[in-house]
Specification:
2 domains, two-stranded parallel sheet
Length: about 130
């Protein structure tokens, strides 16, 4: 429900993608209760399908928390850049026993650990200029 918190603190728009229909319905109900439906969208697609298309507008911040057992991080991170504004940040959580392979496209801006979970804030790496 971080998206609801973001809306309450002034975010212009939040796109929630929740594959669990019950949770998606709870998010929709909360948006209606707080009169925030005009500033949000709720979808329930597989994240790979969702990211196969292009967002109408780029996002400044993305919270990525896919099911841990699915190991979707590399695939989702590869598809994400077309959805982002140039200086966007991506928050990612993953188990401490899973290495998050970022490749050259991403760099860790900040990171920490809570219990058995690593979390980090990523930003896109800028291409280096060749001389």
């Amino acid at each position: 429900m971080l998206g609801l918190e973001a809306l309450s603190r002034g975010a212009d728009f939040v796109h929630f993608n929740e594959t669990d229909y019950t949770l998606a319905a709870q998010i929709t109900a909360a948006l209606e209760r707080f009169h925030l439906t005009e500033r949000a969208r709720v979808t329930h697609e597989d994240a790979r399908q969702l990211l196969a298309g292009q967002a109408a507008e780029g996002f400044d911040l993305v919270f990525m928390d896919p099911p841990y057992q699915a190991s979707l991080w590399p695939d989702l991170l590869a598809r994400l850049p077309i959805w982002l504004k140039p200086k966007a940040l991506v928050y990612v959580e993953h188990p401490i026993d899973v290495e998050l392979k970022l490749g050259e496209a991403w760099r860790v801006y900040k990171q920490a650990r809570a219990g058995r979970i690593n979390y980090c804030l990523l930003e896109r790496s800028l291409p280096s200029a060749s001389l």
